Amino acid sequence: MTDRSLYAPLTVQGYRRDHGRTHPPLLHPDYQSTVLRAPARPLTELPHTLTEVTGPLLGEGRVGEFDHDLTRQHAGEPLGERIIVHGQVLDGDGRAVPHTLVEVWQSNAAGRYSHDLDRHPAPLDPNFTGVGRCLTDAEGRYRFITVKPGAYPWKNHHNAWRPAHIHFSLFGRAFTQRLITQMYFPGDPLFGFDPVLNSIRDPAARARLVSSFDLSETVPEWALGYRFDIVLSGRDETPMEDEEGEE
Amino acid sequence: MSRPITPSQTIGPFFSHALPWTDGPYVVPEGTQGAIWLRGTVSDGAGQPVPDALVETWQADPDGRFDHPDDPRGAVAGFRGFGRCPTDASGGWAILTRKPGVVPGPDGTTQAPHVDLSVFARGLLNRVVTRLYFPDEVEANAADPVLAGIADPDDRATLVAEATSDGYRFDVRLQGDRETVFFAI
Questions:
Q1: From CA B1, how far away is CA A229, in angstroms rounded?
Q2: A190 pLDDT more than 70
Q3: Catalytic (active site) residue A162
Q4: Which positions in chain B touch A10 (Cβ < 8 Å)?
Q5: What is the H or E stretch that residue A29 is in?
């Protein structure tokens, strides 16, 4: 075998668990696709071992020059309302998550994705793919320039429309912190009718997915600013190895 | 200052032009000595393939170490440890990697070689998390603290891959008959 010191007992500090308080339940029948896809059996609690408290730290090589500016990825500018979406990635202890990869994707201003299977009869925009990436800075801040996505219909139920949203994918610094979510825009009249947003039971948690209009980040004569902070799970108070009174 | 966390939402159906990377399925480059293919399918409660899922993997290197500063034994650079593959029309995914080594577990235990998996899909409001174990690690699997926490041998069996000619096969059944054991993390 290899060096035995690699297998000496380690103290691993885990991450706080949600215990179903914040995240939506996997089964939410109002969102029909959950019915055959949500696991039927209860989840088993996984201890936070070295595998779970580490995770991919994906760096600069993943981000191209115009990946943060979705309005400059083609020959011309996309149609729609130009916006700036920015915010800070934090953990549950309020600490910034620096240099972490943030991925976004969205429909165009007409509510159409640049995706082969999107059949919504709204126009594609040859100047908009709707895909962005960036790394947070040393303070955990990110900033994208894009156009405001449109609402679009889906076939979940009669006259079903998704409120305008931008998809966000985050890694944090540990497997436990991996998060995919959606950012919404303030005051959308579709909120009350959307089973995806309303799968989150706590109204305060739902409200955290709604960005706020940000005049301070709005650029005169150019683009409105919206702020969306993202909070990943924080560290557990006590290292798990101490629970059984080791040594 | 404590901050409440941001809730999860589904990845939705329209991510395949956004998230997959050309090198996503290649934790190690093709031609790497000792590389193995992990292949499988994702299926739903009706036994139908899930053609719009994203499978991500995270694992230790062949020595059981991570390229990460929180590995108290010191980070080992050069092994990405992360794989990402969208499922195809048949629900299939494949990731080229090396078999991980033994990893320290809670309370001085050791964990059998394993790969953590996340599955994202339309209809999953949060990712589901499972673990892939290796069929040729009978002794290590028997001593693994996570597998030991699963009482029913049929349930444990859902976490053990099958050997194939070029690696291992691991099917993820989201719901129903032989439903995969999923973890709360």
A1: 15
A2: yes
A3: yes
A4: 72-73, 104
A5: none
* Residue A215 contacts B, CB cutoff 8 Å: no
Judged against a pLDDT cut of 80, whether residue B36 lies above it is answered with yes
What is the reported pTM?
A: 0.95
Mean pLDDT value of segment A27-41: 98
pLDDT at B45 over 70: yes
Contacts of B60 in chain A (CB under 8 A): 50-51
B76-105: average pLDDT: 96
A68 is catalytic: no
- Dist CA A16 CA A232 (whole Å): 10
pLDDT score recorded for residue A247? 34
Catalytic status, residue A158: no
> What is the three-class DSSP state of A13?
coil
d(CA A127, CA A120): 18
Q: In this structure, are residues B131 and B159 in contact, taking their beta carbons and an 8 Å threshold?
A: yes
Q: How far apart are CA A66 and CA A53, in angstroms?
A: 32
Neighbours of A245 (CB within 10 A): 6
Q: What is the pLDDT of residue A5?
A: 59
Pick the catalytic residue: A15, A31, A113, A142?
A113
Q: In Å, how far are A25, A33, A158, A162, B139 from A155, measured between CA atoms?
A: 21, 10, 7, 10, 50
Place of tokens 């053990």: B160
In this prediction, residue B59 carries a pLDDT of: 98
Task: Decide: helix, strand or coil at residue A147.
Answer: strand
Of these residues, A15, A142, A152, A184, which one is catalytic?
Answer: A152
Residues 103-162 on A with a CB inside 8 Å of B are 103, 105, 107, 113-118, 129-131
